[in-house]
Amino acid sequence: MNDRSSAHVLWLAPQPLVLASGSASRRRILDEASIPYDVHPSQIDERAIEAQTTQAAPPQLALQLARAKALDVAKNHGGRLVLGADQLLSDDHGIVHKAAGRDEAAATLRRLSGRSHGLNAAICLARGDAIVFETVSTAHMTVRVLSEAFIADYLELCGDAILGSVGCYHIEAIGVHLFTAIDGDQWTIRGLPILPLLEFLRDENYLRT
Q1: Catalytic pick from 38, 45, 72, 86?
Q2: What CATH number did the domain enclosing 166 receive?
């Protein structure tokens, strides 16, 4: 549970949001927006869902995963509002998953080098067994040509923390050195499109207008 201080005066609901994700980046975004939340990560098998939906375009697959996470957690939280989220990185050859180690991270960076890819960030809000809101946003990222020396130095600087990012980068840190162009908002890139979420929460009287 995050700190519920006077910083959350904009929040009107009697209980905080439930975040169906263990992502540190998503927690930081909610903290920055002064949205109180409890963390209850979903235990769904993401790869199994991907295997069952091989024909879905990456934005739709991200939305399906966000939906599955929200509903998985919402069923155990009564009438509380549950936020599920997912982010998929896709390029011309398909989906790129998180790297399991430094060698895989280096391979991911070589794959992205000199090319463009999309970051598809989806959110879904559920209450009980009902979906009350969902949306998906895509950011388009262009990576410069990366030398082997840069990749080695970059991974050494980032350390294993970078393995938690699907593209092996955080644009709010030294990951910005990878790019020549970015078309999309920072919250989509960080994994939680916050603006449509805030709009929904205001419309539903969870937030002060």
Answers
A1: 86
A2: 3.90.950.10
